[in-house]
Amino acid sequence: MRERLVQARNLGLAYGFYFLLLAIVIVFTAISNSFLTVSNWTQIAIASTFLLSAAAGLTLVLINGEIDLSIGSIAYVAATVVFLTSDMPATVSIVAALLTGLAIGLFNGWLVAYLGMNSLLTTLGLMIAYRGVALVFTEGTVKQTGEGLALLGSVKLLGTIPAIFFVALAIVLIFQWILRGTRLGTYWLAIGNNEESARKIGVPVRRAKLAAYALCGISAAVSGTLLAAYLGEITTFTGRGMEFQAVAAVVIGGASLFGGRGNVFPGTLAGVLLLIVINNGLGTRGVSPFVYPFVAGSLIFLAIYLDAIKNRDVRSVS
Amino acid sequence: MTAKLHMQGVTKVFPGVKALDDVSISVKSGEVLGLVGVNGAGKSTLMNVLGGIYRPDGGHIEIDGRRVDFARPIDADAAGIAFIHQELLYFPSLTVAENMFISHLPTGKLPFSVDKRAARARAQASLDQLGSGIRPTARMESLSVGEMQVVEIARAVAMGADIVIFDEPSSSLSIKEKEALFNIVRKLKAEGKAVIYISHFLDEIQELCDRYVVLRNGQLVGSGDIAEVTHDQIVEMIVGQVVTERAARTRRKGGAPMLSLEGIRREGILDGASLELREGEVLGLWGLMGSGRTELIRSVLGLDPMDGGRITLAIDGDSREVSHDELLERTAYVTESRRTDGLFLDEAIWKNISSTTLADYARGRMRVLDKAAEAGTARSMIDRLKIMTPDHHTQAAILSGGNQQKVVFAKWLNRKPDILILDEPTRGVDVSSKGEIGELVGALAEAGTSVLLVTSEIEEMVALADRVLVLRDGMIAAEMLGEDITETALMAAALRTEAAHA
Amino acid sequence: MVGEMVDTSQTYVPRDSGVLKLWHWLRSHPALLPVVLSVVMALVFALTVPNFADLRNIMNIFGQLGFLGFLCIGMTYVMVAGGIDLSSYTVVSAAAVVGATVMVATDSTVPGCLLMLVIGLAFGTINGIAIAYLRMVPFIVTLSTMVLAEGFAIWFTQAQSVYGLPYAFIDIFSARILPMTWGISARPVGIPVAGIAVLVAALILGFVLSRTLYGRRVYLTGANEETARISGIRVRRIKFSTYVLAGLMAAITAMILTADLGTATTAMVRDVRLMDIIAATVIGGASLKGGKGSILGSMFGLLFLTMLSNAFNLLGVSPFIAMVIKGTVLVAVIGLDVLRAK
């Protein structure tokens, strides 16, 4: 009997947020006519795109048992590079933005993996520094992207869904493959499980972590680039507060802040959808948008609390 | 048939100690060699030489008759030597197959990819070889400790090891798991692997091994076929000539009961342990690692969970049941590892010493600490315990092991405790400090303090304890009094043989 | 004779030992670094930055210490005990908007202030229970309460600022006393009460932390929780108390800032300021590993950063460049922490 209960609880802890997502979709469908419509789900897809593409990379870093709080600012820096190259062809803008993301990611990874600096505080400081850099170049104002890029941002596939959503989805799938299908991914999981053991057994811990940060940097840069392409302009709000939402989405999706477990697909995807759907659903019911930060904050608190409970059990077992 | 592995005249010297002195052993393929000896006899040093962790100062290693030289652990790996450690290295959220091949994942068709199917198949093959039913796709965290060990062995087999070394493999296994382990060891033997099996349990050695080797004080003191030796003969080799009791000392009788523990239980570790500690005695708690010695103490003090049992303490002559916190506040507890939970390493000596009785130094309504008084206490403790330090402002971290341990004693003596619990009080302590600590413990007991002593050092137990309780499988299995406390008897008790030499 | 030779060889003094000695001495007096930095910085700015040494500006800097000083004190206690608190700056807003709303509604000061205290303490209690008793990781707990407090403030005010505070309230907390004239200031300049308040708080709480029984217990808990626990210190209670204290400090900050701005908003303290608080505390000698730091160090760390901001302002340096510099300073300080630990 007791075992049954434990099993049920573990199932709940593992899949609880999927059930919650399902329940929320059902409730909103029931109480709002405009919720389950193609146009609304197109909105949800668009709104998910930017958080999703950044959260995918953060998942990899979290699986290593580290964190990167600078992703929102990396997104803004990448968008700023898009602005700085707006006179050039769209491909140049995109490549330059992604390379910038890669370079920043490598720098973050170097500080954490090679210098052994605390990832939380270091990336908190970098979050401010990178945003400052971007603001210097944009002078704190809204800037236009090149026309080519704006055109790309407006491409639609399968009828009404913007192509940018599929870019985010592609990143999710590629990262999931790297995580579960390659040596590197296995290394990340091992490092997140037990960094000391991983080192002893011959896992190249530093290089693996560096790679996770590099991919995280690229993924954040994609997010910023997609937002710039979609809006046709670069606002100073690009990536603001994104780091906390992304941490929430990843943790809700089943990854642990203690490292060693998690998936980009379907985990992080579901986490992002949950946050976006709640926001969207509240919107279609005409609830004040100012409730949302509180609801999201509560949800994040809950997710993190459950993660801690889950991990306390695991640790007491091992 | 030449030996698969031969270690010839291996000598290893550490500053001040000859850890190994001209030790030669050899193992043939298809043979199990039992390696026994007390803690500190040189078993681990010998295995560390074999594992490429230490370079020997003399002698050499031969495999298949060829001389080999291991500069790094990876060289031993490559030579086909695998260690099954007591503490397993594993990754709970990865699968069994991933755990087995983490450092040698087979490459798939796509660039950078892993051929998971191949990894699973290879894992399955070596698990089958051991006759184990563990699935390669199971998550490591879903396995029991015994199953994890099997995975580790399967990993060694899959890596092509043909010399397998087991380091106290059974200490954390259930009876059923032990059986499974023995079967695997026999299988390895049948497949022609050379096995070295290190254990404290002589019955295991007798059941599994073909030959035995006994180490004592870094020297090889006996070897031969297991069939030609009795239990008692091995015990004697392990302990050495029965030492004539040093200046036979009178064992204290102890006064009124001070602390009594009844039926202390903790899931999977303690199974109803009971004991009574009397005023002015040194009560020894004897047992192998993993018998629950430290766990009993930590559970009773509330530092680890306790699932059942009663704690009764005599306070000002009145016996009553007390909470963990109450006991902790009235007890001095010299822990097993002073660096992790005995000292504030980065702090000055005086702050360490006053930490147990801080409230005594608080003055006035603001509870301001009287630093001069703290320093005074520290200085008098430094004099009393002969702590070698420039002054009381010195950081605890930079003292020698012996002096660090004296600081730990100082901070507890400062509390003038009724009960003193000592867990490995002289581990990593130099000889002269060791003697001083021994004298101190005796003097404290003489003055009426109740001392509970846990130690793995047989000589220390014989020298200090007035009464010894033997802990086995989380229960008190036997009691020894006065003259019965001898090295042979203690060794025999721990190894589960009849105390024939009483 | 031989013995003497051995002796001299052992006491042979390497040439760079002066530097080494200085290094060891600095390590054992970590509060000295921010003090020296502040003094040097003050001298340099006084000579190079126009109007920096003006009495009005000095008083401004002093007043500004009141805005972040309390949060720095709270952070120091939390970090000395081995934790961290990221939530205090949004708790300021949560407390401010509720208290201010009540003040506007009742047109009286006391109930609003009490409510600010209650909310600050409530968030401190949540943090404390989760970290000390449920043994959750401080960074993560306070990160989520940070989001929660901000969300709460936005929801409560519908993202509007709260205006129309009682004058009595504004007068008390943003007052300046003892006007004086000095140097080129034409009009007399008063001493800001906020600055005096933080000075008094720093003296008292600095004394408590460095001299009293409770303070020592906070240090020992941070230095080695396990040893402290076995030595009979109730480490959970100590850790809990530091977060409650941090909540209290946030509430006081809410009062001072609300009065100074004349309004309560959802972003009373900008997130950039969180960097200042952490950086000041770490410059002041605190370590992420706990057991180190002091109120004196933190206050001078804060003074250093406040003068830096002030000088940038006077020189007309872009606030964006200031962000870059602040972020870099924090990263550098964390790097220093890593070096210090080695």
Task: Summarize the SSE layout with pairings.
The complex is a heterotrimer of chains A (318), B (502) and C (342).
Chain A: H1 2-31, H2 38-63, H3 71-84, H4 90-114, H5 119-138, E1 143-144, H6 147-153, E2 156-157, E3 161-162, H7 163-181, H8 183-193, H9 195-200, H10 205-231, E4 233-234, H11 242-252, H12 264-284, H13 292-317
Helix pairs in contact in A: 1-12, 2-7, 2-8, 2-10, 2-11, 2-12, 3-4, 3-5, 3-10, 4-6, 4-10, 6-10, 7-8, 7-12, 8-10, 11-12, 11-13
Chain B: E1 5-14, E2 17-27, E3 31-36, H1 43-50, E4 58-63, E5 66-68, H2 73-78, E6 81-84, H3 96-101, H4 116-129, H5 145-158, E7 163-167, H6 175-190, E8 194-198, H7 202-208, E9 211-216, E10 219-225, H8 231-239, E11 257-266, E12 270-278, E13 282-286, H9 293-300, E14 308-315, E15 318-321, H10 324-330, E16 331-334, H11 338-341, H12 349-354, E17 362-363, E18 368-369, H13 371-384, H14 401-413, E19 419-423, H15 431-446, E20 450-454, H16 458-464, E21 467-472, E22 475-481, H17 487-494
Parallel strand pairs in B: 3-8, 3-9, 6-7, 7-8, 13-20, 13-21, 16-19, 19-20
Antiparallel strand pairs in B: 1-2, 1-4, 4-5, 9-10, 11-12, 11-14, 14-15, 17-18, 21-22
Chain C: H1 2-10, H2 17-28, H3 32-48, H4 55-80, H5 88-106, H6 109-133, H7 138-157, H8 167-173, E1 176-180, E2 189-192, H9 193-211, H10 213-223, H11 225-230, H12 235-261, H13 271-283, H14 295-315, H15 319-341
Helix pairs in contact in C: 3-14, 4-9, 4-12, 4-13, 4-14, 5-6, 5-7, 5-12, 6-7, 6-12, 8-12, 9-10, 10-12, 13-14, 13-15
CATH architecture of chain C: Orthogonal Bundle
Biggest β-sheet strands, sense, barrel of chain B: 6 strands, mixed
Helix content of chain B: 25-40%
Helix run count of chain C = 15
Largest interface (CB within 8 Å) is between: A-C, 42 and 48 residues
| Overall 3D form of chain C | globular
Plain-language structure description:
- The complex is a heterotrimer of chains A (318), B (502) and C (342).
- In chain A, helix 2 packs antiparallel against helix 10 (205-231), helix 3 runs antiparallel to helix 4 and helix 4 runs antiparallel to helix 10.
- The longest helix of chain A has 30 residues, at 2-31.
- In chain A, the strands form two sheets. Chain A has a two-stranded antiparallel sheet. Chain A has a two-stranded antiparallel sheet with strand order 2-3.
- Chain A is mostly helical and 318 residues long.
- Helices cover 76% and strands 3% of the residues of chain A.
- Chain A is globular and about 60 Å long.
- Chain A has one domain (34-317): Orthogonal Bundle (ABC transporter involved in vitamin B12 uptake, BtuC).
- Chain A has helices at 2-31, 38-63, 71-84, 90-114, 119-138, 147-153, 163-181, 183-193, 195-200, 205-231, 242-252, 264-284, 292-317, and strands at residues 143-144, 156-157, 161-162, 233-234.
- By secondary structure, chain B is an alpha/beta fold.
- Chain B folds into two domains: 5-239, P-loop containing nucleotide triphosphate hydrolases (Rossmann fold, 3-Layer(aba) Sandwich); 257-345 and 416-494, P-loop containing nucleotide triphosphate hydrolases (Rossmann fold, 3-Layer(aba) Sandwich), CATH 3.40.50.300.
- Chain B is built from 17 helices and 22 strands.
- In chain B, helix 4 crosses helix 5 and helix 8 (231-239) crosses helix 17.
- The longest helix of chain B is centred in the middle third of the chain and has 16 residues, at 175-190.
- The radius of gyration of chain B is 26 Å and the shape is globular.
- By secondary structure, chain C is an all-alpha fold.
- Helix content of chain C is 75%, strand content 3%.
- Chain C has 15 helices and two strands.
- Chain C has helices spanning 2-10, 17-28, 32-48, 55-80, 88-106, 109-133, 138-157, 167-173, 193-211, 213-223, 225-230, 235-261, 271-283, 295-315, 319-341, and strands at 176-180, 189-192.
- Chain C has a two-stranded antiparallel ribbon with strand order 1-2.
- In chain C, helix 4 packs across helix 13 (271-283), helix 5 runs antiparallel to helix 6 and helix 5 runs parallel beside helix 7 (138-157).
- The model of chain C is unreliable at 1-16 (pLDDT under 50).
- The chains are: A mainly alpha (318), B alpha/beta (502), C mainly alpha (342).
- Chains A and C meet through helix 5, helix 11 and helix 13 of A and helix 7, helix 13 and helix 15 of C.
